[in-house]
Structures are given as C-alpha cells and as structure tokens.
Amino acid sequence: MTLQRPVFPLLAFIAATLMAAPLQAREALASWNDGPTRQAIVDFVARVTTTGGPDYVKPEERIAVFDNDGTLWTEQPAYTQLLFALDRVKALAPQHPEWRRKQPFKAALAGDVKALAAGGAKPLMELIATTHAGGGPEDFQALAAEWLAHAENPKFRARYDRLVYQPMLELLDYLRANGFKTYIVSGGGVEFLRAFAERAYGVPPEQIIGSSIVTKFVLVDGKPALRREAKIAFIDDKEGKPVAINAHIGRRPIAAFGNSDGDLEMLQWTTAGAGPRFGLIVHHDDAAREAAYDRASPVGRLARALDEAPQHGWVVVSMKKDWKVVFPETPKP
Amino acid sequence: MTLQRPVFPLLAFIAATLMAAPLQAREALASWNDGPTRQAIVDFVARVTTTGGPDYVKPEERIAVFDNDGTLWTEQPAYTQLLFALDRVKALAPQHPEWRRKQPFKAALAGDVKALAAGGAKPLMELIATTHAGGGPEDFQALAAEWLAHAENPKFRARYDRLVYQPMLELLDYLRANGFKTYIVSGGGVEFLRAFAERAYGVPPEQIIGSSIVTKFVLVDGKPALRREAKIAFIDDKEGKPVAINAHIGRRPIAAFGNSDGDLEMLQWTTAGAGPRFGLIVHHDDAAREAAYDRASPVGRLARALDEAPQHGWVVVSMKKDWKVVFPETPKP
After folding, report:
1. Per-residue confidence (pLDDT) for residue B116, from 0 to 100
2. Which N-terminal residues, if any, form the signal peptide (chains A, B) (predicted)?
3. A-B interface: how many C-beta pairs under 8 angstroms?
4. Within an 8 Å CB–CB cutoff, is residue A249 touching chain B?
5. d(CA B263, CA A8)
6. pLDDT of residue B136
C-alpha cells in the first residue's frame, strides 16, 4: 500500500476535471436520431450540469431512475423473468406432481404465457416466490445467470441479455458521464436483476431496487446464511415505486424513465419535485424492429401514463422515429 | 457545460492515482492509541488494499457497515431517538388525552426512560410509529433536525450531534480514504438517521439502512406525495440486519462495526464470508469519560457478541485504553 498524500494538487485538480468532462452528446447518444426527443435529453442535462446556472443540480442529487422491462430491455413476447420462471417450473415439476392440477403452475407447464401475463404482477410473483425460493441470494443469482447465458428469447431468437436497447445503454452512459447516479427501479425481482444488471447496464447491485421475496437469516450448522422463502415480501410496481425509491435512496430523483402504467406514480412523483425534472416514456411503436403495443397490451400496458404525458411535459420516445437501432449491433459476448 | 474528452490520459491517470492515495494511518487515526486494536485496523486495511496482494479486495467490494447507537454516538442515558420520541409525545399530548392512561405513552409522559428502554426495540418503535407519523419523510426530517439543533443530552449537557465518537469519525474517514463505501445499519429509524448522518458522519441518505414505518404514496389535490403511517414496517435489529444489508446493498460487507448483541448477526454474517473479513465491537468500559456497561444494561446490552468475539477473531475496543478522546474536542457548529 502506498501511503502518501497528493503532491501536485493543481495537477491533480486539472487532470481530474478533464477525466470527469462529459462525453460529447453527439458521440454519446449516437443511436438517437436528431430531433426534439434527443434535444430534450441534451437540454435537460445541460441545464442541471451548468455550474452557476439557474437550474444547476449538485452531483449527489442527480438521481435518475429507470424501469427495466420494456424500458431497458425487451418485454416481448413476455417478461423475461416470467419465461425464466416457466423454465424453473418445468425443471422442478417432477418433484411437484400437484402442480399439474394447480394454477398458476398448470398454465406455466402448458406454456400458456398469455394467461399468466394477463394476470399482472401477482401470479408472476407467485410463480417466482415458489420457484425461486430455497437457497440463498447468491445461489439464486447463479441459477439466473446460468439460464441467461444459454436461454433464447422465442420471438427474437437471441439471448435475453442481448435484447437490451442500444439507445438506452447510451443514455445510461451519458447520464453517468454527467455525474448522474443511475438506479434501476423494476417490478422484477431484485436478485434476478442483480444477476445481469451490472454487466448489461453498468448498474451495481446496491443501485437496484426491485420486487422481493421474504429472506431470512439462519444458522446452518453454526454457519450464518440467508434463505429465500416462498412468500412475497414487496412488489415494486405502481405506487410501490416511489415508496421503494424513498426507502432505498432517500432522495427524490430528478429524472425518471419508464414505458408503462407501472411507472406512472414514479414519473408523477419524480417530476412533481421542485427544480428541474425530467420524465420520459419509451413508446413501443416499432412493429418491424421490436413490437408495437400500448393501451391493449397485457404486457407493459401504457394508457394512463401516455394520457398524462402532455400535462406533465414527459417526453414520449417513438422507438420507430427516435432510435437508429433498437438492439446492439455488436452485443457483449 | 464543457464538452470535451480527456486530452492527457497519462497525466490524468497519474493525478487520479495521487488523489486516491490513502491518508497516512497515523494521521488518520489520530485519536486511537498505539496498540493492538489500532494495529488490527491498519493491518486489515493494508491487506485488502494492497494491489496484487493475496487478500486484495476490489474497491466496489469494500463495503463497511456501522451500527449507530453506541457505535458512532452515545446511547446514554437512553437511545437518542427515544428521547426525541418522548419530546414528541409531550408536544402532541394535548391532542391525545387518552395517552395519560395508555402505555407506552403513560411512561413516556412520566419521563420513565428506564421502563421504556428495558422493553427493547418494540415499545420504542411503537412510540416512534405513533409520534413520527402523519407527514412525509421530508417533513419528519425537518422536525428531527430542528430538535437535534436545540435539544440537550441530559447526561452530558451537550447537543446530541456533538456526542459522536471522535475515533469512529476518524475510522469512517480512514476507510473511505482507502476506497471503502461506509453504510450505517441501525435499529434506529431510517428517516431520523437521514436527518443528521450526512453532516455528522459524511454518510449520504442512500447509504443508510434503518428501521422504518409504513410509508404510502398518495395524491393530495392531484399532487403526489409520501405519507408516513403509524405502523411499523421493518425493525432493523439482530437477524434483521443481514437481511436488510442484502436487500439494500446486495453484497456481503467485508467489515462490520457494532457494540451490542443487536449487532451479533451482522458481525456473524459479515465475518463468515470468504476472504479477508473484519469485525469490531466497541466495548463501553469508560465510566469516567462516557459510560461503563455491557451484560446487564437494558440499553446496548452486550453479552453474546462479547462471548463470541474470540472465536471469530472480532476486535474488542476498550474505549478507556484504545481511545485518546471520546467526543470531538471541536465539534461541528
């Protein structure tokens, strides 16, 4: 260990300033088409980072929250975690003959994704609670990571972690380069998200807020461990999102990014705060490259948030018009 | 906003390295007497920060968790938050005549701190739930900050936020200077802690884990807000601590600091992980400068954790022998 103090404070200051210099917006948001959507993002970031400007926000208050399913990666043909849970049901079914006659397991074994998705978060969470319990968080993350490394999305015929949105990856990087702390606030399970979010999005485990099942501290042969139980602890959706953000972060975000009515309260609460605020909705209107859905979709239904967008000044992204590409052309291996 | 990329990468690298250089241990831990306790701290930090060494730990995994009451500030003559709650009971009593005949309010109005403290976290949390509910988290933090700015600890005749332990402040700084992320993991209420922890300890709101009451998202005249309800949500004590740490941070800490049996499971779980681990117990054996208590104390009882310390290699701090001073000589204004 080198124990010495800075010897060239001025040099250090200059260099640190250069290192922290934000990326060129054009370079950073390369997959965003020119137009009012990209301009709104760039303008907002310029306002809150201009030292001495009227809307300057200190770095520690530059909190940005992102929904995951449908905002950072695809939720088609169904939530990825639901598809993972279905595979877990199949893997565990031989030990559970009663599942053949019991919902939601029966639908899961039949591969009836539509029926499951239509029920919203509750049956999904019940499947998750049952099929994701047993071991500790690290065991579960290993299971999820293993599945993600091999399973294939049936619609896009690609690994799930390659179906992230390239423009949103650039947006995450751009915000972080401008001193923002980026959080994921998802209805998905927190340990499922932790299995891939750091590699996929550069978001570390402590910046992930999600749904959870009950976890208990136990001593196994005198050795302390955590055990996941088949019981829902918290569903991080709708009005749960602002509550969870406050519990976890303790600051109201200044920017929120979502794509469905599950993000409505998070958008409302974020943008109702004093000072500069930013709300953005990813609108899936791109049937050719990904999917077109909103008001009538059982997955990622978007109706109320879309209706409220104009009155709050939320930016609505048209995937079709605003994005040059949807998925990364050279995904991570 | 300056939009440019680093032009002198080598210069920047050198300067950033110098800036990140850890403080001299001697300087940083100035209030710790020479001896095995301080040496154990310095040795552990050297092990985990020596690049290329066998026990090197990457900065993002250098998580240190600190209990608050009795570990970072005094818990004598009673938990500070309990004394705050008593003052809240008195302030709110005129609107609640029924409290004169109902426990724990009756004891609170009689100022019977001993009776309340002896019950452990539950009656304290009931008082807190009732007297701390009503507004939003920001309203509550303002109330707590206002009280902390004026109230006086009856034993030490000083403001509560001046009764922090100087050697522990230095330890927090020393760990952070060595790339650690410092978290508070307290049985106290998370919003109460947030009212002072950043100023007192340099710990930001998102690194505070604590007990909580139920908080709900509401629309008031169409305006989104959070409302605190008179109902306990989570008690962050004993086996709750490892559970909350996992939920919040998603990594097992490599160092844990506590002072009572409420910290036992956090110490067990932290130090049972693979690789280098550090556990420390502040033992209150200094009747002259602060207080001497352990096994028989209703506040901060320390028995099982003290018994288990040798088998786990936890360092037991003698306030009397290891600390040059207890409280800051020049407290923050």
Report:
1. 77
2. 1-20
3. 155
4. yes
5. 42
6. 94
Give the single-character DSSP code of A152. E
Rg from Cα positions in chain B: 21
Q: Does B121 touch chain A (CB under 8 A)?
A: no
CB atoms within 10 A of CB A125: 25
Coil vs helix vs strand at B225: strand
Say if B20 is an interface residue toward chain A (CB within 8 Å): no
- Best mutation target, B51, B211, B218, B226, to test chain A (most A CBs within 10 A): B226
Q: What is the DSSP letter of B33?
A: P
Q: What integer is the mean pLDDT of A218-228?
A: 95
Q: Tokens 């991570």 sit at which residue?
A: A332
**Do the Cβ atoms of A299 and A293 come closer than 8 Å?**
yes
Residue A242 forms contact with B (CB below 8 Å): yes
CA angle, corner A113, sides to A109 and A117, nearest 5? Answer: 125
Interval A271-302: pLDDT, tens = 999 999 999 999 999 999 999 999 999 899 99
Please check whether residue B197 touches A, CB under 8 A: no
Is CATH 3.30.700.20 the classification given to domain A23-76+159-322? no
Q: Residue type for B101, please? A: R
Beta bridge pairs of residue A256: A65, A279
Distance CA B221, CA B229 (A): 19
Report cis status (omega within 30 of 0) of the bond before A77.
Answer: yes
Higher pLDDT, B141 or A15: B141
Interface test with B, best of A141, A246, A271 (most B CBs within 10 A): A246
Quick check: A257 and A64 in contact, CB under 8 A? yes
Is A109 in a helix, a strand, or coil? Answer: helix
Alpha-carbon separation of residue A214 from A223, B18, B73, B247 (angstroms): 20, 45, 32, 10
- Does residue A204 have a cis peptide bond before it, meaning omega lies within 30 degrees of 0? no
Taking all residues of chain A, what is their mean pLDDT, rounded to a whole number?
Answer: 91
- B13: confidence class by pLDDT, cuts 50, 70, 90: very low
Q: Best mutation site among A49, A57, A226, A263 for testing chain B: the one with the most B CBs within 10 Å?
A: A226
Strands (E), chain A: 63-66, 152-153, 158-159, 181-189, 208-220, 223-234, 255-258, 278-283, 315-318
Is A312 in the B-facing interface, judged by CB distances under 8 Å? no
pLDDT at B139: 94
Show the CA angle centred on residue A143, arms to residues A138 and A149, nearest 5°. Answer: 120
Strand pairing class (B255-258; B278-283):
parallel
The CATH 3.40.50.1000 domain(s) of chain B lie at 24-76+163-322
| CATH number at B24-76+163-322 | 3.40.50.1000
Query: In this model, does residue A24 exceed pLDDT 70?
Result: no
Task: Kindly report the nearest CA distance between residue B109 and chain A, in angstroms.
Answer: 30
For the question of an ipTM over 0.85, the answer is yes
Tokens representing residue A247 in the block: 């519990």
B207–chain A nearest CA distance, Å: 8
Quick check: B325 and B169 in contact, CB under 8 A?
A: no
